[in-house]
Amino acid sequence: MSSSFISLARLGWRPFHSRQLTLEDLETAHPARVSSVHRSGLAVISEQGTFSVTVPPRLIESLELPITVGDWVLVEHAAPRVQRAITPYSVIKRYAAGTDHRLQAIAANLDTLFVVTSCNDDFNPSRLERYLAVAFEAQVEPVILITKADQCDDPQQFIDAAHALGATATVAAVNAMDANSVSALDPWLQSGQTVAFVGSSGVGKSTLVNTLTGKPQQATGGIRELDSKGRHTTTSREMFALDDGAWVIDTPGMRELRIGAVEAGLRTVFDNIEALAAQCHFRDCKHESETGCAVLAAIAAGNLDPRRLTSYRKLQREAALAEMTTHERRARDRSFGRMTTSAIKVKEKFKR
Ligand SMILES: Nc1nc2c(ncn2[C@@H]2O[C@H](COP(=O)(O)OP(=O)(O)OP(=O)(O)O)[C@@H](O)[C@H]2O)c(=O)[nH]1
Ligand SMILES: [Mg+2]
Ligand SMILES: [Zn+2]
Question: How far apart, in whole angstroms, are the C-alpha atoms of residue 267 and residue 285?
Answer without folding.
Answer: 16
